[in-house]
Design goal:
3 strands; three-stranded antiparallel beta sheet; Arc Repressor Mutant, subunit A; globular; mainly alpha
Length: 139
């Protein structure tokens, strides 16, 4: 089995487990990523999130729309009228605190096969490979 096939298979299986955890809350993995990001950062703009995720703003906006529909995210007008700041509602914070331990347990279980050194090395390898992709496509 090739390296990238194994990465793809792992990603697919991980996403299936993550989706199963999120399904009762009617959230996708992208919705969860945004909820988690706002929980950690407290406040952010769509542009800041798009830059961090390395995606286009419409991708973020679609997730914002879903979370707003569920009353998990709120917006606040910035000084610049074109800029809106996103933050979690109280309902969003409570939901994050409910779901987060489940996801952390899944991740802890998966990472338990690695030593601390292996985790660090693996994370560095992924970072380096991502940087290589960015270099190759930004020439």
């Amino acid at each position: 089995m090739t390296f990238f096939l194994q990465v793809h298979r792992f990603h697919r299986k991980y996403m299936a487990h993550l989706s199963a955890l999120l399904a009762p809350y009617e959230l996708s993995s992208s919705n969860w990523s945004l909820l988690n990001f706002l929980y950690e950062e407290q406040v952010a703009t769509t542009s800041q999130i798009a830059k961090y995720w390395d995606v286009e703003k419409p991708t973020v906006s679609a997730n914002v729309k879903t979370l707003m529909k569920h009353e998990l995210v709120q917006t606040k007008q910035g000084e610049d009228k074109r800029e809106k700041y996103l933050s979690l509602t109280e309902k969003g914070e409570k939901l994050h605190e409910t779901i987060s331990p489940e996801i952390k347990n899944l991740q802890k279980h998966l990472l338990s096969v690695l030593t601390q050194q292996q985790k660090g090395e693996f994370q560095q390898v992924l970072f380096d490979m991502e940087a290589r992709l960015k270099e190759d496509f930004n020439e």
